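Lab notebook, page 48
Experiment: co-folding of the full assembly
Goal: obtain a model of how the components sit together before planning crosslinking
Operator: M.T.
Materials (sequences as entered):
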Amino acid sequence: MSEIFLFYLFGGLSVLMTLLMIFQTNPVASAIYLVGAFFGLAALYVLLSAPFVAVLQVLVYAGAIMVLFTFVIMLLNIRKEELVYDRVTWRKTAVVLTALFFAGFLIWHFLKIPVVPFAPVEEGFGEVHKVGRLMFSKYLIPFELTSVLLLVAIIGALVLGKKE
Amino acid sequence: MIDLQYLISLFHAGLPIWILTGTGLVCLLTDGLWPKKGGTAVFIVGFLGMAVALFFAFRQWLSGETIAQDLLVSDKATRFFVILVIFIGLLHLLNSASYFRLLGKVSAGGSPAGRLGPAGRLGPAGDMVTLTLFAVVGMIFLFASDHLIVNFIGLETMSLAVYVMVGFNRRDVRSGEAAMKYYVMGSVASALLLYGIVLLYGAVGEFRLSEFHKVAIFPDTAFLPRIAVVLMLGGFFFKLALVPFHFWVPDVYEGAPTPVTGFMATGVKVAAFALFIRVLTALNYLPTAVVSQVLQICVILTLLVGNLAAIVQDNVKRMLAYSSISHAGYLLLGLSVGYQSGKFDPSVSSAVLFYLAGYSCMTLGAFAVLSVMVDEKREATQFADLTGLGYSRPVLAAVFSLFMISLLGVPPTVGFAAKYGIFSFAVKNGFIGLAVLGMITTVISAYYYLRPLVMMYFCGAPEKVKGGEIPFPLMLSLVFCAVAVILLGIWPLPYIDMAQKAATAFK
Amino acid sequence: MEHPFLPILLVFVMAALFTGAFLGLSAILGPKKPNPSKLSVYECGLEPVGDARERFSVKFFLIAMLFILFDIEVVFLIPWAVTYKGFIAEGMGLFMLIEMGIFMVILAIGLLYVWRKGALDWR
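Observation: model returned without errors.
Model output:
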């Protein structure tokens, strides 16, 4: 029961924070709300018995990626008057309506799925230990491939970002 | 859980991949340790490493035994594609080796991408070689696994490398713009694909495509795989540049450095098609009957839009961008005729596989020619720049004509053999309408494929002589592509046989 | 219910309560006699509000980017460190060491590359 309550609390929190983020005109305030949304999501991961993912969410997203976000915001240095409010056009209305239609379609169908009580997960599911065991034995290849992916990202950052 | 036996078989299954990755690391080290003059050395190391990987890939192909390995598939189909993408990577290395030198030689300050060599000339860019190697590794992982998450990491590795390659020409604003566009669009595509994969996992509880035949779908949740498949198709169509998702293509293809455009138009497409065939085959076990209709609609749109829009372009790169869209349409046509009563029959993909090989040769060749077309610090790829090329640079003009004729699909070239294969499958499986549409659009495409020929030979002499030698690596790539285009055209049987062997591995 | 993350939730709740309470209380109870020099952010020095048009160097961006990438590398180290002991007990310690070694070497080459290319120089 309390889990349901917590789910709605944190789910509501992250939705609220995301909305606040979108409707802010100040980019830095937007970024701060995004951190709030990340924390809400992290709490949801905990409720889903995925504590490791929750920790990653805070460490990587709320930590490192937000640093980059704020850097980008400062780099762009948008002035207030540059933030012109958009006018409503047919095209934008169509885009919004399509998105709403798709969201409604998804929600409608998800609600139709009967609620099946899942078998409870085994002891320690989703904890660092279990995740690590899988990652370093069964998922050996994707793990090593990730290092190549990171390497490509490093080269990319250097090639595109370095001053000549 | 993991023993020596497992590791040995893993080593054998992915031998070309390990070689490529190792070569990439060595390239990076060379570039890092001698940053001032490493360009040429990096190029040589990268080229040799790729050649060795190609050799082992061929040996794997000939040895024939399928090594079934967890998370890494090494069957005939995979090996076919491994050979193909390594070839593409090699040709890309040759194409790009002199491109930045050509660009840099005419610009006073020198291109940022190239490094000043000992003779004061700009050598090949080391970063480009490294990125190419890792992009090829990503491409191989994109289809050499039946685990969707591994495929996705491979896709991201490839995409990241290609985004950077697109923005490589930092002196050129258009290159940066193209990189930005491609990055944003590509990220959306990746996100769509990932969301689809995750929803599919939610529906069937399985990431392994080869295990899909075991899963049971309950009618209550049958909509979930449908949504998942729609999202995945969206992601694939973006990467394959099919029509409702094509609007980024012309700008990106035009803005990217010319050799990179060739790499994108071939390598990315080949790898994405390889995974696409695998996914379509696995989807047979899910209640997703609408896929065939979606594919057919997409084929019709792609063929019409791609071919008609190509007519009105006045930049050759842009024209080739639309041409690559329409060729993706022909390829998709080859897949969509594989549907018989809602089930996909992967044996039709032999025609598609052969088409991919032929298409790669002619497209890379065409972009190799365009890589030489550099004039006064910038790429000279307008149609007007081709005027009189037949007299000022007869060899270049001749091979370019050959590639254009092949892209059009005229008999002695591979373009004809490839299109013939696709259309004959379409007719055999009763898709007369699609086959007729394909032929009509082929006739339309004659207009824009023959226009460069007219410009080169019948529009008078060039205003100024744009002579100059063709750099050796580029010459090598041109000769290879031209020979392949003719050889695959007049004597396609061994290669069709290869494609058929590969296609039977999809099951 | 003994959820292992309950204490962390409690910490967050307490933190929010305390900060909220103190801020609120000082706003309500504190005396308010504002004057211009009290309201300024710094008592001396530059005027903090103004045109913020001076552009950041792209260097910051590059450093932040590299930070993220190596941060993700650290993220992979955590589960490895946690599970390493268990793997040793199963006789797979050497394998695990080599596996992580490959991962680290690949990224170390990246670091070397970044360093030699001069991206870490602050000029």
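Interpretation: Strands of chain B lie at 67-69, 72-74, 339-340, 343-344, 374-375, 378-379.
Next step: discuss with group before ordering constructs.
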